[in-house]
Amino acid sequence: MDYRDRFELKEYRQEQRLSRRVVLFHVGVFLLVVGYLLRFWHLQVSQGEEYARLAENNRLRRVAIAPTRGVIFDRNGEVVASTRPSLNLVLQREGLKDADRQLRRLESVLEIPYASLRERLDQIRSRPSYEPLTLKEDVGLTELAQVEARRDWFPSVLVETASRRTYPDGKAVAHAVGYVGEVSEADLALQREGLFQGDIVGKSGIERAYDEVLRGRRGWNLVEVNSLGRQIGEPRTGTPPQNGGQLRLSVDVSLQRALIEALGEETGAGVFLDPWTGEILALASTPAYDPNVFASSVTAQIWQGIAQDPGHPLQDRALTSAYAPGSTFKVVMAIAGLETGAIGPGTSVYCSGSANYYGRNFLCWKKGGHGTVSVHEALVQSCNVFFYMVGKQTGIDAIHKYGDMMNLGRLTAVDLPGEGKGVLPSPEWKQRLRGEPWYAGETISLAIGQGLLAVTPIQMATMISAVATGKVPRPHLARERTQEATPLAVSPATLAIVRAALADVVEAGTGRRASLGPIPVAGKTGTAQVFKKSAGIDADELPKDERDHAWFVGYAPATKPEIAFAVIVEHGGHGGTSAAPIVRHVLETYFADRLPPPEEGGDKLRAGVLRPNGAGSAATPAAR
Amino acid sequence: MLRRRLLASLDLHIVVATLSLAAIGILAIASATLDQPGRSGLWLAQSTWFALALLAAVAVVSVDYHLWAEFSFLLHGAVVVLLGLVLLLGKEVGGNRSWLVIGPITFQPSELAKWSTCLVLATYLSERGRAGVGVRQLLEMGALAGIPMALIALQPDMGTALTFVPIYVAALVLGGLRFKVLVAGTILALLLAPLAWGHLKDYQRERILTVLNPDRDPSGIGYQVRQSKIAIGSGGLMGKGLFEGTQSRLNFLPAQHTDFVLSVVCEDLGFLGAAGVLGLFYYLLFRGIASARSAQDRLGMYICLLVVAWLSGQLAINVGMVLGLLPTIGVPLPLMSYGGTALLAAMAGIGLVVNVSARRFVN
Q1: Is A28 a domain residue?
Q2: How many CB atoms lie within 10 A of CB A163?
């Protein structure tokens, strides 16, 4: 093989190698294209539907349409809560320029602090920019004019229509109706059906209890948007909102007004109900708050003001606060004594002002004693010594049985959230909870409604209803919720004795300040000891916050009960002096068309209710 | 006489495929941007460039490729000078100094560099005679491709710089570089990769990591890839119809008319559109390879294969990126992505291939 041949061979091999490489390259390109096509097939055909759904969600935004919350009426068809249109000033965050300048101008025009606006704007920075920042809710025409007049100052400030919950009677219905607000993270976490961020829900009272009825369901509009969230074209209708349902309450707003007026500046609570059906006619707790303030988002300042108020206005004392019933418990004691046969209608006791049991001296509130008293007189004059005896003779087990029968220490199952249970003590309960045995002396204290006993005003209203009708009703606020009352296993004879005594309490005893004249009222006063030292001291002479809590429970008319009640005034002193006049004011409103027109107007009553310091001297012992 | 013969031997397959792809590109650009404020004129601008590119391609075809090869070093040198000028005088857009402004025209010399690099490497290979590829050739060709690449990397336009790699590797392979050497070089490059990782910018690392895990950053780079996949996938088999794609029209898809133009086609025209575009590209490349095989000499063959390597490399990277298989590196789709210089350079490149195939008969 000569040189030339070798050269050609090399050339030939090179040529061949090159050709091989070109083929290889060609195959490579082919495989690449086929591979990519398979991938396209996978994305577009195999997973096409899934991606189509993603694309649809990308461009269609669901914009919520808030439902209109249902109207709440009282028993006479008067509006208790409704929704009205309102205007909000909002800051459009999309395309926002010189935010600081606009916010500072707002401070000067509307006096909204710049710092708080800036802070709120920063807080929602991570939210989508199409969501505006609410600057001020429910602006009036003056404020609107102030902004509109300087339109060029506020390129990003818009007026938005919204709706707002209103309560025409404000404070008067606060604790019965409750208030609404934006749904909390906690409620959302519980995933209550159909709840979304930003929804307005009931926060307390009826608004919360019947939220499902009242709220309705939000609807949606579908809006086509671009990647910046800017709306393109007209909104398409999605699902229309379902407005909330109406609710009719058993309450009578005129009685609510009378009750809140009568409670006035006092701290306390009152429950008025139909003793036969359990329909609540009025329910209030003071100090009250104005539910209109909460109508939508509350500023932190207002919230703190309410939450940190030493009077705890948000607390519904009618349901959640448990107090010692004091002498009002003597009603239960009398029934328990008579029913068990521990005492009879003629049983009498001599009251010398105190009695000794188990080596301890138990005082009667009247220093000189009541003399010889029967069960009737003992109830009318609220004699402690008689009931110490009843307690000893009846025994704790029977007392517990009858208290429990009349719904003390257990939930009344009223249709309001947050009801408290209170305590009706028993030896077994004490052993279980405190690990201590029951002492006999405790039964003696219990007999006059002190000691470990603690009851809520609504329980007391239920108890006294049972006395009035012979049946234990189920209290409720929503009209249609009527439940059958449970018959009370107490003989008519026993009830007759107790009812007669209760009528005399108002007629001639400690509750005379509740007297209505032609319409007989039955009731029982009570004084719940706050401090040990108050025993035996005239409560009205103590400083206000050391005075005992004052109770008045009862029903009217005494002969044919239509309305039963329980009122407590914290640190009110004696039930007869502070609680009874409150009841009378409400009853006067209730029986307005059956009573002769007042001769001197309501002034006399109001003086009694508001009771300026020193007025206590007017309360002679005989007046109790 | 000569003209008529040239015209008769033109590869019409390549011409039709090229014009179709450019036309589909313009349609896709229009679909994605027509109703967007400030962008509605883009399709018209691209059409104008298309006309210019057509003229350039005709000019490239008219002159015998041997003459182009004779001037290749001069041309390449001129382009390198332009790349230097870009760094000094260029216009900066989005952090990259890649554009030269001359009067009303804004153009990217880096795109021209791809064309001149193909030409100069083909000339180098054909003039190298019968010698194989030794260290010297490796380095000399490295300099020819590497200098413009480095200048582009300084802009910094890593995506465009990267497209020089397939051209360079193809030149080495064509030059007869032993597979052993090639494999060794690849291994060496892989070993050096961790070093390069340290030199990458944070956002570049982020892009690489996002390919491995697309949900890593759903609002940033991951967002782009995800939206691209949504655009492609939601097109389904038949597509939503031209001008109907919501992903691109509503601006969910970033860079929809440039690097992600294929996503627009896939959204509007579905899998059929994707298959059509890939089919046209395959056909174009296949005809390019065929032209190489029938070339009258080594120079013609090298030119064809290097241009094919350039286009297929860019195709592979862009489609991989659009499908979320490769990092989002900013490589446009040849012929279709918005960008005048890129269109012009690609058509001028294809013009070289047509040139070679039209002169396949030794006369």
Answers
A1: no
A2: 17
Contact A268, A578 (CB under 8 A): no
| Backbone φ and ψ of A566, nearest 5° | -145, 125
Count of helix runs (H) and strand runs (E) in chain A: 22, 21
Instruction: Say if residue A269's pLDDT is above 90.
Output: yes
Lowest-confidence pick of A336-345, B224-233, B269-278: B224-233
Using alpha carbons only, what angle is made at residue A212 by residues A209 and A213, rounded to the nearest 5 degrees?
90
A59 touches chain B (CB under 8 A): yes
Number of domains forming the structure of chain A: 2
Cα separation, B257 vs B340, whole angstroms: 12
Question: What confidence tens digit (pLDDT) does each residue in A439-457 have?
Answer: 988 999 999 998 889 999 9
Expressed as residue numbers, the domain containing A169 is 62-249
Record: contact B246-A58, CB cut-off 8 A = yes
Q: Where are the beta strands (DSSP E) in A427-506?
A: 471-472, 486-487
Angle at A164 between CA A159 and CA A167, to 5 degrees: 145
Which residue in B35, B180, B225, B234 has the most chain A C-beta atoms within 10 A of its own C-beta, making it the best mutation to test that interface? B234
Asked if residues A246 and A73 have their Cβ atoms less than 8 Å apart, the reply is yes
Q: B315 pLDDT exceeds 50?
A: yes
**CATH code for the domain of A323:** 3.40.710.10
Interchain CB distance below 8 Å, A29 and B285: yes
Hey, how many other C-beta atoms are within 10 angstroms of the C-beta on B151? 23
Which residue type does A617 have? Answer: S
A223 domain residue, yes or no: yes
Neighbour-count burial of B347, counting CB atoms closer than 10 A to its CB (0-12 exposed, 13-18 middle, 19+ buried): buried
CB atoms closer than 10 angstroms to residue A286: 24
Average confidence (pLDDT) over A456-470: 95
Q: What are A550-594's pLDDT values in tens digits?
A: 999 999 899 999 999 999 999 888 877 889 999 999 999 999 888
- Report the C-alpha dihedral over residues A499, A505, A507, A513, rounded to 10 degrees: -130
List the one residue out of A610, A348, A575, A621 whose CA is nearest residue A449: A575
Q: Are both A240 and A286 inside the same structural domain?
A: no
Asked if B312 has any chain A CB less than 8 Å from its own CB, the reply is yes
Token reading at A181: 């607000």
**A26 contacts on B by Cβ (under 8 Å):** 286, 289
> What is d(CA A567, CA A607) in angstroms, rounded to the nearest whole number?
18
Are B167 and B309 in contact, with CB atoms under 8 Å apart?
Answer: yes
